[in-house]
Design goal:
The complex is a heterodimer of chains A (about 110) and B (about 110). Chain A is built from no helices and eleven strands. By secondary structure, chain A is an all-beta fold. In chain A, a hairpin with a 2-residue loop joins β5 and β6. The radius of gyration of chain A is 13 Å and the shape is globular. The N and C termini of chain A lie far apart (about 35 Å). Chain B has no helices and eleven strands. In chain B, strands 2, 4, 5, 9, 10 and 11 form a six-stranded mixed sheet that branches. Chain B has a five-stranded antiparallel sheet with strand order 1-3-8-7-6, with no helix packed on it. Chain B is globular. The chains are: A mainly beta (about 110), B mainly beta (about 110). Chains A and B meet through β5, β9 and β10 of A and β4, β5 and β9 of B.
């Protein structure tokens, strides 16, 4: 009965490869997010989708492409991986409206690019 | 660009001590949230404060939102080793309808037994 789940938990790959991270939420939320947490633990928003529509697209390289097949899923595809992409990537979800913006996070995917 | 500065960055205390973590900004936020993140896990929401001057208590944790809604504090009474973790404050810009949260720089707390 996991609320927000991500796969894989760990991902080790070489530079230049293409990889995907999947996220699913069963909370009935209509907004989902991708965050990147660097080695200093700073959490930065990358993308957000509301009902499959992109609403936040921060300054992220074009190599990163989110895809939302439905409002319960938000996947992140990364092309031509670089060393600097190594980080922990978190998926989160929230319910639009209400004004509180409370977000529920997945367990994270630790990406290591060698 | 809205920024949330947290202080201190690191805090190592003995079990039973009290502590306060601060979250400050020069900008006004509609609401402010506190999260705790343990190693290898995602942040977990602790509380949301919405009204200026609001105080909320969660067992030994007391959260306060500043009157001007630009700052917040988290006070822990009689800290326990289970309180160890990364504490993050996060707020949203009242002029931004995209539901984007701005996260603070984080405070790493270690409570020694």
């Amino acid at each position: 009965d996991t609320a927000v789940s991500q796969t894989p938990k760990y991902l080790v790959t070489q530079m230049g490869n293409d990889k995907s991270i999947k996220c699913e939420q069963n909370l009935g939320h209509d907004t989902m997010y991708w965050y990147k947490q660097d080695s200093k633990k700073f959490l930065k928003i990358m993308f957000s989708y509301n009902n499959k529509e992109l609403i936040i697209n921060e300054t992220v390289p074009n190599r990163f492409s989110p895809k939302s097949p439905d409002k319960a899923h938000l996947n992140l595809h990364i092309n031509s991986l670089e060393l600097g992409d190594s980080a922990v990537y978190f998926c989160a979800s929230s319910l639009q409206g209400g004004g509180s913006y409370e977000q529920y996070f997945g367990p994270g995917t630790r990406l290591t690019v060698t | 660009t809205q920024l949330l500065e947290q202080s201190p960055q690191f805090l190592s205390i003995q079990e039973g001590e009290n502590l306060t973590v601060y979250c400050n900004s020069s900008s006004v936020f509609s609401s402010l949230q506190w999260y705790r993140q343990e190693p290898g896990e995602g942040p977990v929401l602790l509380v949301t404060v919405v009204t200026g001057g609001e105080v909320k208590k969660l067992k030994r944790l007391t959260f306060q939102f500043g009157d001007a809604r630009k700052d917040s504090s988290l006070h822990i009474t009689a800290a326990q080793p289970g309180d160890t973790g990364l504490y993050l404050c996060a707020g949203n810009n009242p002029m931004d309808s995209s539901y984007k949260l701005i996260f603070g720089s984080g405070t790493r707390l270690l409570v020694r037994p």
